Amino acid sequence: MSETPPPRSAVPQLLLDLVTNPLDPGYAAAARRRGTGPRPRGTRSAAAAVLAIGCLVIGFVLVTAYERTHRGAPEAKKVHDRLVSRVRTAQHDSENLAAQAAADEARLEALRAQSLPQSGSLARDLDAASLAAGLTKVTGPGLTVTLSDPKAATSTPAAGRAGSVPIGATTTLTDRDVRSVVNELWRDGAEAIAVNGVRLTPTSAIRFAGEAVLVDFQPITSPYRIQAIGDRDELAVTFAQSDVASRYQTLKGAQGIGFHFGDSGSLTLPAGSPTTLRYARGGTR
After folding, report:
1. What is the average pLDDT score of the chain?
2. Closest listed residue to residue 244, CA positions, set 189, 194, 196, 178
3. What is the DSSP letter of 230?
4. What topology is assigned to 137-269 in CATH?
5. Which of 90, 92, 103, 215 fits a disulfide with 198 by CB distance 3.0 to 4.6 angstroms?
């Protein structure tokens, strides 16, 4: 009985092709269509020319921008220096005029004291009127209230009177806050009040322009220091019990504003600016 020989182990044709010819036929066909010769010289020259032109254009733009920037920088600095010089000159002139006005006021007081009897009723009435008008420098006990914006509300310095927080920054406190404290102190019995060194008179105005608080057209900045002369015990107790103090104590915890007050045995407030008198005149028919 004859036996059938076992079949020979055959390697699949696909594996043989992968070993003997690893490149895909499509690559060979594409190479034949493209050709095996070198690329034309004109194509490489054109690409190099375009690249060179692009580099030249970019270099020209950068050089022009650099030249214009550095050419305009000295002129801008000159303008800035001139403005700073003008501001400083104006501030110096203002200080000189203020000193001259104070000296004139002192001479006027001396002449008035020589002309009027010190014990007469006219001198007493004139002193009382000057005090009420805020035209006399005063010293006495009283209360100091300080309001200030949160520290995160500002970042850059700016000009202003007696403050550390810039005007040009985003502010939390406005003229209404300063007015509310001032009006409460008047209500509590204050005899004289000054805000950041600016004495209040019967015709004083506290306004808000842009982001600056103006007291009689003089800009002041945070912190706002409000000084009031009067009976310090009565001022401290009455102000502490007022709705104004309660509101700012709440804002101090909720928004982080600065608010504190305390009595003082001696405060000195400057004289206010003289008031220009205006008289009514009867009309003619």
Report:
1. 78
2. 178
3. S
4. Alpha-Beta Plaits (3.30.70)
5. 215
Query: pLDDT tens-digit profile of 247-257?
Result: 999 999 898 99
CA dist., res. 220 & res. 226, Å (int)? 12
Q: Where are the beta strands (DSSP E) in the chain?
A: 138-148, 192-195, 198-199, 206-209, 212-215, 218-220, 224-229, 258-269
**CA 185, 186, 188, 189 torsion-angle sign:** positive
Whole-number Å distance between alpha carbons of 200 and 207: 13
Given a contact cutoff of 8 angstroms between Cβ atoms, the answer to whether 219 and 244 are in contact is no
Rounded mean pLDDT, 84-110: 80
**Structure-block tokens of residue 254:** 């909720």
Q: How many residues does the chain have?
A: 285
How many other CB atoms sit within 10 Å of the CB of residue 143?
27
Domain ranges (residues) in the chain: 45-114, 137-269
Specify whether the CB–CB gap between 112 and 126 falls below 8 A: yes
Question: What whole-number percentage of the chain has pLDDT above 70?
Answer: 71
Q: What is the mean predicted confidence (pLDDT) over 94-113?
A: 80
Residues 29, 32: Cα–Cα separation, whole Å: 5
Task: Supply 89's token pair.
Answer: 């000159």
110, 124, 136, 138 from 116: Cα distances, Å? 10, 10, 17, 20
Any residues with CB less than 8 A from the CB of 231 and at least 6 apart, and which? 141, 189
